[in-house]
Write a structure and sequence with these properties.
single chain, mainly alpha
Length: 165
């Protein structure tokens, strides 16, 4: 079946992007070889929870699924509905798998500071606003991409170069 490899490759490419967009933090320290201790791991788990990672993952999926549906018109709407339901049901597993990443990349002191920030009023505010910020950002990014695409097409047309193969 030719649909399966095409779907698989697109989902394999799309899901890491979703996850990367959903993570509210970027690792700032060089990778450390292993998790230092259970205290550090516990702090990393608190950080993932306090930073709203689950909600951001789900919001990112919600924002990108319409594009996936449009890019894959041969895939039934039922597939996408089931995929979204499975993502909602299983998001905790993905969020839990993020804690070791933070535990390896941040010291205990850094994790304590990050948790303190995300548990503070301003940290809770940023978590509460992340979904709306992501939604607005997606619209801005789409308009930016459309503008760049149009400018590139005009430039290539002016040079007599084809846009399509």
């Amino acid at each position: 079946m030719t649909l399966r490899p095409r779907l698989g490759s697109r989902l394999c490419l799309s899901l890491p992007v979703l996850i990367a967009l959903a993570l509210p933090l970027q690792a700032q320290s060089p990778a450390k070889g292993k998790i230092a201790d259970s205290i550090q791991f516990g702090l990393a788990q608190r950080l993932v929870q306090a930073s709203g990672a689950e909600a951001m993952i789900l919001k990112t999926i919600e924002l990108t699924l319409p594009g996936q549906r449009a890019q894959n018109p041969g895939i039934s709407p039922e597939f996408w509905d089931r995929f979204a339901a499975k993502a909602r049901a299983d998001v905790r597993q993905l969020a839990d798998s993020l804690a070791p990443i933070y535990a390896r990349r941040f010291s205990t002191a850094e994790l304590e500071q990050l948790v303190a920030f995300y548990e503070s009023p301003v940290g809770r505010h940023i978590v509460a606003e992340q979904g709306a910020i992501a939604q607005e950002s997606q619209g801005i990014g789409a308009r930016w991409g459309t503008r760049l695409g149009a400018a590139t097409a005009v430039e290539m047309s002016d040079e007599g170069k084809p846009i399509q193969r």
